[in-house]
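re: that chain from earlier
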Amino acid sequence: MSESDKGKFSADISPEVIDEALQSVAGERAPDAVTKAATADGSDDTPISTPSEMEEVRSQLALSQEKGRETMARLQEVHERMLRAVADLENYRKRAQKEKEQMQKFGAEKILADFLPVMDNLDRALDHSNGSADFISLMQGVSMTRKLFEDTLAKYGVQPIPAVGQPFDPQVHEAMQHVESSELPSNQVVAELVPGYTLNGRLLRPALVVVAKKPNPGEALDEQSHRD
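^ sequence. v structure.
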């Protein structure tokens, strides 16, 4: 069988097979014919099978062969569809894998390109500081660069978390220290150690803060008694 014939089916029946089937049918039906003839006149000269019966059997075999070809054709069609489906699935898997690799390599390309001007401004500020003693100008340049950096982050949904002066919120704040204060409300953020950020409303990094608390009267009395 050649490579092109693989996966193909055939329902054709050769003439030799048909003749053998007819002979087998005739042989099986002969005893009945002989019995009938012997009963009628006592002789064994009755034909094994009539031409009409042979033609009927031949027609039935031809019909069975035609139905077999139709069934095999349908099976062949289903088989070919399955092969095409498997090939399409494999091609899709390869394309998805390639797109995944491309995304991993270049998914952040646009974001990184938007941050390049920030690097350019930092380089300009450093170059300016080497040839000038104007500290105020340097500070202004760095401040402008930070503003550009902040605006670029905001472009992608990154927003700073309000901290100083806000009530302490454990969802977005992380208390690193508590300080006593009789002037500030208890549980108010008095200082920000590290700023926090959200990304499109989701916490990206909590703000590390210092939180105010009310003085403990008992501790104040103990301290006063020690002084006395």
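Strands lie at 158-160, 173-180, 189-194, 197-199, 202-205, 207-213.
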